[in-house]
Amino acid sequence: MVAPVRWTVAGACGQPLPHARRVLPGTPELPRTQAGLTIVELVLVIVIIGVLGALAGPRFFNDRSFGERAYAEELAAALRYAQKVAVGSGCRVRVSVAATSYSLAQQAPQSGHCNSADGTYPVPVVLPDGSMVAGTAPSGVSAAPAVVVTYDALGRVSSASGLAITVGTQTLTIAAGSGLVQGP
After folding, report:
1. CA distance 135 to 95
2. Is 116 helix (H, G, I), strand (E, B) or coil?
3. Which of 64, 113, 125, 155 is most buried per CB count within 10 Å?
């Protein structure tokens, strides 16, 4: 005699559904597989995320190195612009670099030429849009040493030796003979 087949899932009117499993009498039920995470696994994932957040988080919110790099690039661009203005106008241009700021000034013109006897540099250098060329370092960023760089009409700096200006970990160098600014 053949044992009757038992259906585990039945639809309306007791008819088996197409996805139903057939279970023979005396056959043990197979354990159902569980999908999901245990509480231990969840706690472990939360702890790992917390540790990563504690270690990596401060790196994302500390922008000092970005500020140093940006200010060094801004200062290098100002020095290069001062050299171009000096060559283009034929007048000396002075760049005053303090710990947290810089500014550009030019000799006063006298009857269409530069007044070489004027050591005050009273005329601020302006950009094509009319704004003065000057800048301030971001909070916590400073340049060292405080220096005054003067470009002559040939684009050379007035010092006999090259200059080095340090902004955090960035270093700008200015060659004495050519006035070339190297840096970030």
Report:
1. 11
2. coil
3. 125
Query: Is the confidence at residue 49, as pLDDT, over 80?
Result: yes
Please answer whether residues 87 and 179 qualify as being in contact, where contact means their C-beta atoms are separated by less than 8 angstroms.
no
| Separation between Cα atoms, residue 97 and residue 146, nearest integer Å | 5
37 vs 177: CA distance, rounded Å: 70
Residue 9, SS3? coil
Residues 6+ apart with CB under 8 A from 41: none
Fill in the amino acid letter for 66: F
Phi, psi of 13 (to 5 degrees): 65, 25
Q: What share of the chain is helix, strand, coil (3-state, %, to 5)?
A: 30, 25, 45
